[in-house]
Amino acid sequence: MPIITEPHVHVDDTELVGLERDVLALTAEERRWGRRRVTTRAGRTLALALPTGSVLIPGDVLHVGPGWYVAVEAAPEPVLVVTPRSREEAIRVAFEVGNRHFMLALDGERLLVPDDPAMDQLLARLGVVFERRAAVFVPVGPGHRHD
Description:
This protein is of the alpha+beta class. It has 2 domains: about 5-75, Urease metallochaperone UreE, N-terminal domain (HSP40/DNAj peptide-binding domain); about 75-135, UreE, C-terminal domain (Alpha-Beta Plaits, 2-Layer Sandwich), CATH 3.30.70.790. It has 3 helices and 10 strands. It has helices spanning about 15, 85-100, 115-125, and strands at about 5, 20-25, 35-40, 45-50, 60-65, 70-75, 75-80, 105, 110-115, 130-135. The longest helix is centred in the middle third of the chain and has 13 residues, at about 85-100. Mean pLDDT is about 90; it is low at about 145.
């Protein structure tokens, strides 16, 4: 089983031509867990032993093996989708979400936040329009948590 000690392999796309592409699909939170066993879409097992604070980035190549490689992919996950009615509303939502140490992602004109009871209550209290969806969630910035 390959042991992964770096969050990405520095490899040129031309070096991957002809190799089988395998995928490790992870949610935003899972991309922050640096020490564990994971299974790729093709069933390969990898051991992650990443430096503390590492965050896997969708699109990065994680490992190159003989005849194959593994790329990180963002898995769809439950989110709350906010379509702000104004720039001010967008700034207010971003501030309030960040103030609670939650991550936020941008999707065009929409803001995505984790589908969490605290976020549901916050958005309802702010009176913003939102809906539940499954979407790829790639947070802005590194973020951090206090749990």
